[in-house]
Amino acid sequence: MEKSDHDADTNSNPPKFALPVDSEHKATVFRLFSVAAPHMRAFHLSWVSFFCCFVSTFAAPPLIPIIRDNLNLTSTDIGNAGIASVSGAVFARITMGTACDLFGPRLASASLILLTAPAVFFTAIANSPVSFLMVRFFTGFSLATFVSTQFWMSSLFSARVVGTANGVSGGWGNLGGGATQLIMPLVFSVIRDIGAVKFTAWRIAFFIPALMQTLSAFAVFFLGQDLPDGNFSQLKKSGKKHKDNFSQVFHYAVTNYRGWILALTYGYCFGVELTIDNIIAQYFYDRFNVNLHTAGIIAASFGLANIFSRPAGGMISDIVAKRYGMRGRLWALWIAQTLGGLFCIMLGRVGSLSVSVTVMVIFSVFVQAACGLTFGVVPFVSRRSLGIISGMTGGGGNVGAVLTQVIFFRGSRFKMETGITLMGIMMVCCTLPMAFIYFPQWGGMFCGPSSKAATEEDYYMSEWSSSEKEKGFHQASLKFADNSRSERGRRVGSETTPADQTPSTYV
């Protein structure tokens, strides 16, 4: 098929970027301390906004001992509120994925953050178990910004560094789950020391995460950019990006079994992380009789491990892929998540405070690394339906959190330490289906590539009909297929580079 005039113009006068880019203008390097537009600026906007949403969603757990006395919450009320905080994002994440595919991550993210911010403000006026549950439920919708974060990074960074970009952005966003364990008790203490009674101080404290979340939404909207070449709306108006058919995007997402397996396995790495964020402060407070401040610090250490653990998972995914390709990514994910499950089992079994804290920290490293490793695989499942696949996987994390809390941490059916042990067993079991993920062009954990000489083009072009190809709608997928050859691992070195490949572009 002949190239369009636009393609010819783009190749003869390529746009300039601060980072080296591939033929899709995705950055081929990841420079953490750069704020260059559009790639690194979007990275920083995405993780900061996701961080603020995490702070808001988990602002209540570190203050539960105060809130439960004020609102007369029972253990069942607390468990239900914790479930509510992560259940809303199940469908919100799938919806967010669809919104990213159709409208772009910038608009989708900013809109959701602004829509959920009022729920954080309204937490200050909660006066019953029901109203407390409702504000936690609606605040939890904001966690769907994780999907826009991963979609955004996958749209701006090339295959060789996409695991790192996804891992660092997701990990640093998840830091909010640990930071809030420090922020909220500190803000509460300051407000109380100024002169407010404790039942008023906790309410005022919620204005801090609410303001953080609101400001982050405006930053994303006014400073961010959807794609290397511009925003979705601008590119569609100029004809540089076609308006995709939602039914087709949805079809190719839900019929790709790899997305469903990743949704299941993510349910027992990120889902477990969400569960721990909800219960760990109370666990140490009740089981080891530590004070509220100490329980908050211990709980914070779990979430704060995200500063390096989830990013490390993404980086490891990219590193092993250079030598072993997609098969290396899958094996690294399975190993990390299985080890996380084993340490989770140990956490529920040990009875010493010091040993429990040590095991919890080691457990946090592996479970969070598994989250980063998961999104080293997700961008390759589908090019056309990237948003929905990301949403399905992210939603799976929330489903796992809901099921785990309903089964093990709601009411008094299990002691909390027993629930933690059983959760670890589920982690190990639900990681096993990863062995069934297979890419014809790259292979799977136990099998090599198809003997039928399948190529990246065969895989990604299968998402487009003949009529769509005739209109040139598949061109972006074709470029992505070419840039994904690195997933062959060390075999890629022996492959020839297509003659018409667009050279990297520098400033």
TrEMBL record:
Topology in the lipid bilayer: Multi-pass membrane protein
Family according to the record: Belongs to the major facilitator superfamily. Phosphate:H(+) symporter (TC 2.A.1.9) family. Belongs to the major facilitator superfamily. Nitrate/nitrite porter (TC 2.A.1.8) family.
Keywords per UniProt: Membrane, Nitrate assimilation, Transmembrane, Transmembrane helix
Disordered, as annotated region: 467-507
InterPro entries: MFS, MFS_dom, MFS_trans_sf, NO3_transporter
SUPFAM superfamilies registered for this protein in UniProt: MFS general substrate transporter
One Gene Ontology CC term in the entry: endomembrane system
Membrane spanning residue stretches: 47-66, 107-126, 133-152, 172-192, 204-224, 290-309, 330-351, 357-381, 388-408, 420-439
Record's protein name: High affinity nitrate transporter 2.5 like
Species, as recorded: Actinidia chinensis var. chinensis (Chinese soft-hair kiwi)
PROSITE patterns: MFS (PS50850)
One Gene Ontology biological process: nitrate assimilation
Domain Major facilitator superfamily (MFS) profile: 42-436
Polar residues composition bias: residue spans: 496-507
Biased amino acid composition, Basic and acidic residues: 482-493
Annotated Pfam families: MFS_1
Coiled-coil positions: none
GO molecular function list: nitrate transmembrane transporter activity
Localization (cell): Endomembrane system
